[in-house]
Automatic annotation (TrEMBL):
Residues 227-389 form the GST C-terminal domain. The chain crosses the membrane at residues 44-65. This is GST C-terminal domain-containing protein. Keywords: Lipid metabolism, Membrane, Transmembrane, Transmembrane helix. It comes from Gryllus longicercus. GO terms for biological process: lipid metabolic process. It comes from the Eukaryota. Signal peptide: none annotated. InterPro entries: GLR_AS, Glutaredoxin, Glutathione-S-Trfase_C-like, Glutathione-S-Trfase_C_sf, Glutathione_S-Trfase, PGES2, PGES2_C, Thioredoxin-like_sf. GO terms for cellular component: mitochondrion. CDD domains: GST_C_mPGES2. GO terms for molecular function: prostaglandin-E synthase activity.
Length: 389
């Protein structure tokens, strides 16, 4: 489901060793970190819905009160992602296979079909023609990721001769894979070690932050200043997607109760929930989820300082992005081909393509030409051509 990270966590409520050598970076900055920075009867069905609905309201209210408490983060530990021997066998929802894939990677993507962060990863994999298996995670039970300590999606698992390498967080996944396909002198496992996870507690909740997640850990020869400036710009807009742009989505797609229900019905269709989940689970997610996210969207609007008319905030951010693209004088921010920032913006927008909010933004901004151009590049796997050179 296309929840924001905050919205996803709230919806669930309602229903290390750091590298000791310099971190290599294809951009302008080279970072170093020290070790010290460390089938039911109708009445039962009705009561179930009432219970869950009541929990949604109470949970949202409790979360709102918790947000008013002082923020006192406490750093506890940092760690890498170890290689794990194996993961439980489970049914693959679908296989995405590209005949020209030369990476040699065997990937499994644990996802929600319309999660913006998952769509971002799929946009990257599809653009570069990297084959992968999709495992659709049940948004209610989440049994497909019970094996993982990390409970968010996407999760990418790369199988290798030593076991399975887990990668968490959409931006880290993309940076690590891009680093690997640019320079295969380092194994993917070694590259992952340059993205340590910082664990800390804030107001009683454990939170994580992945360091270096917008940086590529590779060495390219003959980099000129223009290339370095382009990569710095790319990192800036990739971070903007995660820190700013994605937060305008939920308040817009869940703006009214009718829009929220429309959005969840589209999620069901796009994610093929009828195929993957029992009818009763699907109905709970659609009706209770839509109502809960409509309530939560009000808080998200306030938290992220959106305008009273949240559509205007959406238009503003899209215009900001298009201004940056037009400044380059090329079809994409990356020039004649999309770069990682183009793919990130496209990916999160693709998660709401069937919503009323998406149709409105196409009507009120100049986003359309750029969006459909990136989609054409992704669908034709044009990035695979660049890997051959």
């Amino acid at each position: 489901m296309a929840f924001s990270r905050v919205g996803e966590k709230m919806f669930v409520k309602v229903l290390c060793h750091l590298p000791t050598r310099p971190v290599l970076n294809c951009g302008t900055n080279v970072r170093m970190f020290s070790k010290g920075f460390t089938p039911l009867k109708s009445n039962v069905w009705f009561l179930s819905l009432v219970g869950i609905g009541t929990g949604a309201v109470v949970g949202a209210g409790y979360s709102y009160l918790k947000s008013k408490e002082p923020q006192t983060p406490v750093l506890t530990i940092q760690k890498d992602l170890p290689t794990i021997k194996s993961i439980p066998k489970m049914e693959v929802s679908r296989k995405v296979v590209f005949e020209n894939d030369s990476t040699g990677l065997r990937l499994k993507l644990f996802q929600y079909a319309t999660c913006p962060f998952c769509c971002k990863v799929r946009a990257f994999l599809d653009y570069y023609g990297i084959s992968y298996d999709v495992i659709e995670v049940n948004p209610v039970m989440r049994q497909q990721i019970r094996w993982s300590h990390y409970k968010k999606v996407p999760i990418l698992v790369a199988e290798n001769q030593d076991g399975c390498q887990q990668l968490n967080d959409s931006s880290m996944i993309i940076s690590a894979l891009m680093s690997y396909i640019i320079d295969k002198s380092e194994s993917l496992t070694n590259i992952v070690n340059f993205y340590p996870t910082m664990l800390y507690k804030q107001d009683g909740y454990e939170k994580t932050e992945i360091l270096n997640r917008y940086f590529l850990m590779c060495q390219e020869k003959n980099q000129d200043e223009k290339t370095k400036e382009a990569m710095t710009l790319e990192r800036k807009w990739r971070q903007w997607v995660d820190d700013t742009f994605v937060h305008v989505l939920s308040p817009n797609v869940y703006r009214t109760r009718s829009e929220a229900l429309e959005t969840f019905n589209w999620f069901s269709e796009a994610g093929e929930w009828e195929t993957h989940f029992p009818a009763w689970e699907r109905k709970i997610v659609i009706y209770v989820g839509a109502y809960a996210m409509w309530l939560i969207s009000k808080r998200l609007k306030k938290r992220h300082n959106l305008k009273d008319d949240v559509r205007q905030s959406f238009y503003d951010e899209c215009n900001e992005w298009m201004k940056a693209v037009h400044k380059q004088g090329t079809p994409f921010l990356g020039g004649e081909q999309p770069n990682l920032a183009d793919l990130a913006v496209y990916g999160v927008l693709n998660s709401i393509e069937g919503s009323r909010a998406f149709k409105d933004v196409l009507s009120h901004t100049k986003l359309g030409v750029w969006y459909w151009s990136v989609k054409a590049q992704v669908n034709k796997h044009k990035g695979n051509d660049t890997l051959k050179h």
